[in-house]
């Protein structure tokens, strides 16, 4: 099933409750972009926000940790009831398998994320270990960037490798997803499409989610 994960990075932080309720009602997954200003050149929000979101979240929460030392936050993520947590391969390197195991021990689904300039084959060692792979379709750090179309070839390659190994893993794509490219995203084999600006930048976010679903 193709799922839509609205990113609250583009939400109205003065009225965040309204936007979380919208995702509860119309979206599939609440995507939470945590940025530390070191791994990526921007700072977003941290647990003071996630703790509050967790109180009213009915859709599953998906934390995308764009931070160095992501493992320092895994327990906190689990405690908040976040069901899915991804960290960047660029931050984890040779600790990637260990970090996946750490998330699993805490009962959290583990995702490995990569930026567009990292060969997609870097993810292959974690097929059969990670629950999902987050393939960035823009460089992590900011919402509202332009979709990088080459990402679809990377998704297809990853998808083929997962199938070749008879493994199971979902593929999530993140950045620049709009109604005009989302069908190509779905056809490439993506399972979860993150969308920030396309949802919260629209005059009618609920209708924008429907449009992303192709409804
Ligand atoms: C970017 C974030 C994305 C971002 C997507 O680093 O990981 O989740 O919110 O925003 P849009 O959909 O506006 O590109
Ligand atoms: Zn994200």
CATH class type:
Alpha Beta
**Which percent range describes the beta-strand content?**
15-25%
pLDDT averaged over residues: 98
- What hetero molecules are bound to the protein chains? D-xylitol-5-phosphate, zinc ion
The N- and C-terminal alpha carbons lie at a distance of 14 Å
N to C succession of SSEs: EHEHEHEHHEEHEHEHH
- Estimated radius of gyration: 16 Å
Low-confidence stretches: none
Task: Choose one word for the global shape.
Answer: globular
In helices, the fraction of residues equals 25-40%
Largest sheet: 8 strands, parallel
The number of strands is 8
In CATH, what is the homologous superfamily?
Answer: Aldolase class I
CATH architecture: Alpha-Beta Barrel
Number of helical elements: 9
Number of domains: 1
CATH topology: TIM Barrel
Secondary structural class: alpha/beta
Describe the structure.
By secondary structure, this protein is an alpha/beta fold. It has one domain (3-213): Aldolase class I (TIM Barrel), CATH 3.20.20.70. 34% of the residues lie in helices and 19% in strands. The chain has an 8-stranded parallel sheet. The structure holds D-xylitol-5-phosphate (DX5) and zinc ion. Zinc ion binds at residues 7, 31, 33, 64, 174, 194.
Give a quick rundown of the structure.
This protein has 215 residues and is of the alpha/beta class.
Salient structural properties:
alpha/beta, eight-stranded parallel sheet, single chain, globular, binds D-xylitol-5-phosphate, TIM Barrel, 9 helices, 215 residues, binds zinc ion, 19% strand
List the helices and strands and how they pair.
Elements (H helix, E strand, L loop, with lengths): L2 E4 L9 H11 L3 E6 L11 H10 L4 E6 L7 H6 L4 E5 H4 L3 H10 L3 E6 L17 E5 L14 H14 L5 E5 L7 H6 L4 E4 L1 H4 L4 H9 L2
Parallel strand pairs: 1-8, 2-3, 3-4, 4-5, 5-6, 6-7, 7-8
Bound molecules: D-xylitol-5-phosphate (DX5) and zinc ion (ZN).
């Amino acid at each position: 099933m193709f799922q839509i994960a609205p990113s609250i990075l583009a939400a109205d932080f003065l009225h965040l409750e309204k936007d979380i309720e919208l995702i509860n009602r119309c979206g599939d997954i609440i995507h939470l972009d945590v940025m530390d200003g070191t791994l990526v050149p921007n700072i977003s929000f941290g647990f003071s926000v996630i703790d509050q979101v967790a109180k009213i979240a009915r859709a599953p929460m998906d934390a995308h940790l764009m931070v160095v030392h992501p493992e320092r936050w895994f327990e906190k993520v689990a405690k908040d009831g976040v069901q899915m947590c991804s960290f960047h391969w660029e931050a984890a390197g040779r600790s990637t398998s260990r970090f996946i195991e750490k998330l699993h021990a805490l009962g959290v689904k583990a995702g490995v994320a990569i930026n567009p300039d990292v060969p997609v084959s870097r993810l292959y060692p974690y097929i059969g270990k990670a629950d999902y792979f987050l393939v960035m379709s823009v460089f992590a750090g900011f919402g509202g960037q332009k979709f990088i179309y080459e990402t679809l070839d990377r998704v297809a390659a990853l998808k083929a490798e997962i199938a070749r190994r008879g493994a199971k893993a979902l593929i999530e794509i993140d950045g620049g997803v709009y109604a005009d490219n989302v069908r190509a995203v779905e056809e490439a084999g993506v399972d979860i499409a993150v969308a920030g600006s396309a949802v919260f930048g629209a005059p009618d976010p609920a209708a924008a989610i429907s449009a992303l679903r192709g409804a």
